[in-house]
Amino acid sequence: MNVRAKLFGILLALVLIVSGVYFGTTQGYLESRFGHFSATEAAAIFHNFYVEHGGSWEGVEQADVPEDESRAENGGIALLSPEGKVLFHKGEVDAETVTLHGFHKTITENGKNIGMAYTYRWATDETLQLKDYIQSSMFTEGLRVGALTLTASLLLGLWLTWLLTLPLKRLIPSIQRIAKGNFRIDIPVTSADEYGQVTKAINQMARQLDRAEETRKQLTADVTHELRTPLAIIQSQLENIQSGGRDVSPETLLPIQDEVIRLTKLIEDLHQLTLADSGRLPLDRQPTDIAPLMDRIIGKFKLDADERGIRIVRKYAEVSLVVDIDPNRMTQAFYNLLSNALRYTPSAGQVVCEIDRNEHRGASYAAVTISDTGIGIPEDKLPYLFERFYRVEEARSRHSGGMGLGLSIAKGFVEAHQGTITVRSKIGEGTSFTVLLPI
Ligand code: ATP
Ligand code: MG
């Protein structure tokens, strides 16, 4: 059953219930009103008798109480003294039933209780006629009004369900297109209600899926591209060796080994990047003093820097800065930044590592800045720097060994720690990366 049929059914049931309750209560109400009326009437007859007989019930059992055959059936009338004694009774039903289940009215004279009139399914001819008339006219009128409300509410329901289900119906083709893998959709948002919110959410979901799909395609293309070069080199070297037919000297194997090392690094980097990208990077956080951590990383580059005459300068804050980080992941991130700084700085240059406390929008951060006096990066290239496989100069980077993954890994790891990474650079003067980690 579709939503429209369900809503329609609910409305129909509602109208039927309301009509049923209306009939039940009006009929019951009429019944009780007439019961009370007949008791009042009976009380008036008995009171008349009492007054006419000089304030006494003497001979009341002979009182002239009108009675009709039809209504006397299953009916009765009774008078009880204030003490509860039956003074008068008439009708098919015994006095006990009449007083137990009938309607009653107290009879008073000069404010004094002189008796109680009871009637059970008892009425005079006129009241009986009036009752029948009212009941039958109410019944026909009720039917008419009921039919009218039913039609009106069903029409209203039809319009209402159309109104409620129309936006949903409009959404269905778009959702089906998404299900088929077509994420390039933008459903116009026409209202601010729940339907509008659902539409917005669907648009957002489609955009997200589209981005993910783009990234996946791009990644596959990039990885294929990166794998092709080292594999081609390995293959041609192996062919050379085979066609040479001589013993293989260790030097001949060196370029092959180089390429294998590159491939291994590529695969390891990709693995880390995938973890960071999908937000599933396991972090083994522990309170870590930043300065000794940086010292250890710098230590790894000391030999290389000394050889090339590059000075690594430390500018650490006087107080120690302890942050809750995964030391291994953050070592990897800083290692990537430092290796870039050294790689892209010519001999006799300088690399500065700065650690400081930073207050930003009411929060405290440990700020680590790694600056170099290297070749710098053109301003128009800065926005792409953290993208995977991005290299400012394709050819030279490849020659100097870069894959273009170091910065995207650094960014992924820093962001996994709720931190930020930013870059400033001036061509020919140097580059400076700043990492902020919340304390
Ligand atoms: P990988 O780090 O994967 O071995 P890579 O160093 O080329 O390779 P990234 O670290 O992501 O890759 O850096 C991307 C590019 O940004 C580099 O190719 C380089 O052109 C530029 N770059 C990064 N750091 C610097 C720097 N300190 N000075 C100048 N250029 C830089
Ligand atoms: Mg790098």
From TrEMBL:
Keyword annotations of the record: ATP-binding, Cell membrane, Coiled coil, Kinase, Membrane, Nucleotide-binding, Phosphoprotein, Transferase, Two-component regulatory system
Gene3D superfamilies listed in its UniProt record: 1.10.287.130, 6.10.340.10, Histidine kinase-like ATPase, C-terminal domain
Enzyme class: transferase
Residue runs in coiled coils: 195-222
E.C. designation(s): 2.7.13.3
Keyword NAD in record: no
Domain HAMP, first and last residues per copy: 162-214
Subcellular location: Cell membrane
SUPFAM superfamilies with a match to the protein in the record: ATPase domain of HSP90 chaperone/DNA topoisomerase II/histidine kinase, HAMP domain-like, Homodimeric domain of signal transducing histidine kinase
Domain spans labelled Histidine kinase: 222-439
Membrane topology: Multi-pass membrane protein
GO biological process entries: cellular response to phosphate starvation
Superkingdom, natural source: Bacteria
PROSITE patterns, A to Z: HAMP, HIS_KIN
Key word Oxidoreductase present: no
Catalytic activity: ATP + protein L-histidine = ADP + protein N-phospho-L-histidine
GO molecular function: ATP binding; phosphoprotein phosphatase activity; phosphorelay sensor kinase activity
Entry protein name: histidine kinase
Origin species: Cohnella nanjingensis
Top-level taxonomy: Bacteria, Bacillati, Bacillota, Bacilli, Bacillales
